[in-house]
Amino acid sequence: MPTLVYFLDTKKHKILKWFLILGVLVAFYFLGLLLTQSLEIDKLKSCVSYTFNYPFISTYFVTVAYLVAVFGPMLVSSRKILKWFGVVSAILAFISWIFYAVNFTSVWCFFAAIVSSIFFVYIKWKNKSIKMANTIADELLRKPKN
What we know:
Helix content is about 75%, strand content about 10%. It has about 150 residues and is mostly helical.
């Protein structure tokens, strides 16, 4: 998300680069965990539970850093639609955390997939409407007025 917002919102590059750096650091942290720790995957209360063998304090800080890297860019964006996606995503993450704290990763990934799909449809719809408007404008400019 920080990369996408960075490229979509050129007005806020100065602040968005910090979210991008944070996102890269979190990604490398998780990559390091995947390469050095065993990942346990279990079914817990009809959800998938992912567990690494690392301290709880580390889990808390990394989760907060992850959430800041994901929502921060959208919430500070100058584009209204990105702000709305940030608010919706943050609400869904909060719901996941409150009701499914033990299975947060699994439930949040489900909600994030829904938000990502809606965002994809929005981008496709917006691009299609821009192309349609350009086609109509081209046709109007080509035809001589009577």
